[in-house]
């Protein structure tokens, strides 16, 4: 098994959930946060997940 | 702290993935060595991250943040001084012998290098210790979830134990290691936002420095005398005790971490495992320790954040979760909580997979039933996995009832572990070291550790023989107990070895420096050369120490 695939899917899904939260519930805040952290964290996770999937796809053979 | 549906969904998603990875790896297990040792099948980037993650349990995460709030950036000594040099030493100097010996475990190396009784001593104490440490971390997690989320202690302990059991039982060590990497990513992804948000809110590093006492933002400046710093340690005790004896003893001889490096595909990758792992390891303080500092700064800022209290003092163990409650909105909160669960699971799976291997090969196969077919040992390995989890749960409950017994046990294991590195370093680098030298050296080291603890007193601890000397803190006492144990073990091992018969050189092939082939690395690319990578790791680590001096 190429671990980059399941990890990639996991973080893509996680990123998707948080990004959607950030878009559709932009007012969700914790007491000390001022920015839409779900959106930013979600986008970062999407990028991380995509990088893992891209690396897995490029190598083709499981390392 | 209240959770919403989305947070539970994220937690559920994580459970599905860890179990899925275990399920997928089920087909790789057909022999006992597949199950217990992964049979040199794991790619090096995975072993490296697992090497770091197996040590990153929930207790570690909670405790490091707590120490950050209590002591400040000097807590990073547990990484920059207490881990990186030892990891580099392990990769450059020790892995060739672990790999060359073809041992399946650390106790088995001791059997090959020395004799049966040295192995037995190490195997039994290690097996008992792993069960207790996973029980204690289970207790810590259950207590925290009960306190913060109002979850039932029993439910959270049983659920998380059941998941760890399921995926280790399905895919064995490979499954534990693969999941540790996913867990490592999740810990980093789940907790770095906390570090960024809390430090930004407190005004960045400069803001922290202006709001905190200078002693909390310097790791070395106040170390020359124990009375100057809150840890109550002085530079020699710190460097020799933590930086040498304790850290080399842990990172180079503890099977929990060594097992990850042994799962690598070949000796070259086995040597690279701790060296590559050293790079993420040295940056972890920014994620796990710095939020603790930010919490103290925030509590001085009038932003409606106060350090959690317990009676008259502070309850530092709750700093991490109170910060999460303040900074994580629903959604990210789910990720943070999942990260906490992930750290707990990686720590527990690490203990359980080390326990089942040592029990099956070093206790069962050595003393109970020697020449059974492999399928029998595979079954024993699986049964031991279940037993290990059940025993850990038992220990978690014992801890809730008798806190003191476990403190005592941990103390005793500390005595057993403190001298171990002396035995290994002599065994690996001095052909003359004899089996009796090693065994009696270990016993003498353990006895002297106990004696040092019994003769000194710190914060009311120790001094049970007669308090002849006082240490400014239990941390200083621990460091000096370790220094004494190491020195006595070193001297006694040499002394006894000189008067007893060494093993014939022919039996030491692959086990000792000078009769073990060390692979040449002139022809491999620079990033695969252990010595060069080790030098780079140490340099970067030195720079970090300098910046935060």
Produce a short descriptive summary.
By secondary structure, chain A is mainly alpha-helical. Chain A contains 2 helices and no strands.
Report what the structure shows.
Chain A has 63 residues and is mostly helical. Chain A has one domain (4-59). Chain A is 70% helix and 0% strand. Chain A has two helices and no strands. In chain A, helix 1 runs antiparallel to helix 2 (37-59). Chain A is elongated, with a radius of gyration of 14 Å. The termini of chain A are close together. Chain B is mostly helical. Chain B has a domain at 5-192 and 232-280 and 344-401 and 519-547: Sodium/glucose cotransporter. Chain B is 72% helix and 2% strand. Chain B is built from 23 helices and five strands. Chain B has a three-stranded mixed sheet. A two-stranded antiparallel sheet of chain B has the order 1-2. In chain B, a hairpin with a 2-residue loop joins strand 3 (456-458) and strand 4. The mean pLDDT of chain B is 92. Chains A and B meet through helix 1 and helix 2 of A and helix 1, helix 9, helix 16 and helix 17 of B.
Keywords, please?
heterodimer, A: 63 residues, mainly alpha, B: 549 residues, Sodium/glucose cotransporter, 3-stranded mixed sheet, 72% helix
Total tally of structural domains of chain A: 1
Biggest interface and its residues per chain? A-B, 28 and 35 residues
Largest sheet: number of strands, sense, barrel closure of chain A? none
Question: Main β-sheet of chain B: number of strands, strand sense, barrel status?
Answer: 3 strands, mixed
What's the alpha carbon Rg of chain A, rounded to whole Å? 14 Å
How many β-strand stretches of chain B? Answer: 5
Number of strands of chain A: 0
> What proportion of the residues of chain A form beta strands (DSSP E)?
under 5%
Number of helices of chain A: 2
Query: Distance between the terminal alpha carbons of chain B, to the nearest Å?
Result: 36 Å
CATH architecture of the domain at 5-192 and 232-280 and 344-401 and 519-547 in chain B: Up-down Bundle
Secondary-structure element sequence of chain B?
HHHHHHHHHHHHHHHEEHHHHHHEEEHH
CATH class of the domain at 5-192 and 232-280 and 344-401 and 519-547 in chain B: Mainly Alpha
Amount of beta strand of chain B: under 5%
Number of helical stretches of at least 4 residues of chain B? 23
Question: How far from one another are the termini of chain A?
Answer: 8 Å
Query: How much helical structure, as a percent, in the residues of chain A?
Result: 55-70%
Helix and strand content put the structural class of chain A at: mainly alpha
């Amino acid at each position: 098994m190429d671990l980059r695939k399941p990890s990639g899917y996991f973080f893509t899904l996680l990123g998707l959930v948080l990004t959607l939260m950030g878009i559709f519930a932009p007012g969700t805040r914790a007491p000390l946060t001022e920015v839409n952290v779900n959106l930013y964290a979600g986008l970062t996770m999407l990028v991380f997940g995509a990088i893992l999937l891209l690396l897995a796809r490029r190598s083709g053979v499981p390392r | 702290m209240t959770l919403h549906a989305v947070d539970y969904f994220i937690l559920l998603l994580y459970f599905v993935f860890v179990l899925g990875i275990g399920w997928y790896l089920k087909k790789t297990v057909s022999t006992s060595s597949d199950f217990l040792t992964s049979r040199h099948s794991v790619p090096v980037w995975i072993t490296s991250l697992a090497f770091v993650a197996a040590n990153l349990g929930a207790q570690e995460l909670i405790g490091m943040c707590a120490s950050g709030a209590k002591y400040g950036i000097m807590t990073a000594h547990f990484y920059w001084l207490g881990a990186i040099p030892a990891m580099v030493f392990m990769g450059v100097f020790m892995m060739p012998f672990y790999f060359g010996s073809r041992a399946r475990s650390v106790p088995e190396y001791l059997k090959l290098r020395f004799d049966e009784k040295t192995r037995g001593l190490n195997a039994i104490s290690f097996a008992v210790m792993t069960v207790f440490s996973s029980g204690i971390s289970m207790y810590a997690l259950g207590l925290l979830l009960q306190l913060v989320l109002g979850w039932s202690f029993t439910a959270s302990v049983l659920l998380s134990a059941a998941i760890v059991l399921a995926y280790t039982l399905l895919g064995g060590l490979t499954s534990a290691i693969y999941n540790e990497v996913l867990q490592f990513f999740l810990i980093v992804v789940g907790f770095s936002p906390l570090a960024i948000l809390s430090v930004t809110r407190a005004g960045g590093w400069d803001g922290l420095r202006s709001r905190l006492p200078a002693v909390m933002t310097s790791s070395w400046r106040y170390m020359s005398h124990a009375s100057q710093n809150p840890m109550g340690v002085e530079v020699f005790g710190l460097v020799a005790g933590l930086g040498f004896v304790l850290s080399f003893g842990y990172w180079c001889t503890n099977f929990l971490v060594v097992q990850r490096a042994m799962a690598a595909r070949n000796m070259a990758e086995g040597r690279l495992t701790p060296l590559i792992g050293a790079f993420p390891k040295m940056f972890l303080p920014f994620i796990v320790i710095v939020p603790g500092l930010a919490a103290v700064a925030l509590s001085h800022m009038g932003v409606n954040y106060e350090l959690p209290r317990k009676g008259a003092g502070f309850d530092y163990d709750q700093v991490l979760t109170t910060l999460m409650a303040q900074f994580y909105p629903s959604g990210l909160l789910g990720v943070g909580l999942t990260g906490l669960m992930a750290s707990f699971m990686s720590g527990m799976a690490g203990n359980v997979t080390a326990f089942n291997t040592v029990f099956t090969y070093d206790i069962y196969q050595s003393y109970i039933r020697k020449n059974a077919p492999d399928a029998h040992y595979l079954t024993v390995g699986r049964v031991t996995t279940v037993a290990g989890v059940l025993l850990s749960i038992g220990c978690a409950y014992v801890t809730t009832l008798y806190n003191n017994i476990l403190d005592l046990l941990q103390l005793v294991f500390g005595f057993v572990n403190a001298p171990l590195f002396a035995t290994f370093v002599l065994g690996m680098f001095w052909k003359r070291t004899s089996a009796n030298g090693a065994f009696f050296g270990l016993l003498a080291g353990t006895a002297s550790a106990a004696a040092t603890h019994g003769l000194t007193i710190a914060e009311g601890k120790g001094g049970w023989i007669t308090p002849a000397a006082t240490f400014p803190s239990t941390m200083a006492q621990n460091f000096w107990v370790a220094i004494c144990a190491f020195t006595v073990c070193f001297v006694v091992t040499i002394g006894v070895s000189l008067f007893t018969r060494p093993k014939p050189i022919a039996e030491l092939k692959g086990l000792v420096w000078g009769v073990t082939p060390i692979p040449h690395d002139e022809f491999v690319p620079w990033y695969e050369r252990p010595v060069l990578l080790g030098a780079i790791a140490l340099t970067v680590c030195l720079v970090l120490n300098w910046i935060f001096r």
